[in-house]
Amino acid sequence: MSLYDRALGELVVVKALVDIPPLPTAFVEGFDIKEMKAGERQWMPIYLAITLSSFTYVDVEFPFWFYIKNFINIKEEEYKNQSELFDLPSPYFFEICFMFIDQKVFSKVTPIETVGQKSYFKYMSKVAGYVEDIRHCRTEKIIRHLEQQNVHSSHIYIPNLQHSETHLINLTLYSFWKYDKGLNEKANSIDFTSYLLEPFIKDEEDEKDANLLQDL
Question: Which CATH code is given to the segment(s) 66-209?
Fold first, then answer.
């Protein structure tokens, strides 16, 4: 199951635009979706919200943290502490952000902050900018943290790491062990040169094959 599929199980608040009968979801979610009259609100998994929104049965409300002021606070906290990652409000923070930024996911969704005040597209472009700033800052902190680690240790612990950020560890360690075979037996830290230059590094076997083809 992909991270996106897992994020679809997270809960959001929806506002019913029409009367909606109860939905038996206890066998999957552990609770049932209660009957809703038009105008009533209720928590439900994102995958159900997407389906009901596609029929314009509900209006999906943005998560409580999905507001400009909260994004500003998260960004400030992330940049303030350069030694640790900030504890984001959801384990699937980036996946959910991109669901709302991508207008094709929810057919009916309206951020409260834009009602009668701001352009929806201008608002979402500003949100996307904050999300990318937060992601960039966290990526730099993760790399710095890895540079200080002993790669020969059996565990690497990074508090508040998002599921979507674990690939950074996999990629950097893979590149280190692949291209620094002579160095990694002695060194205790990660050399990120090989990671950054990975697309431009050729194996000796690849070079031999290329020379053989040229001779032919």
Answer: 1.20.58.1020
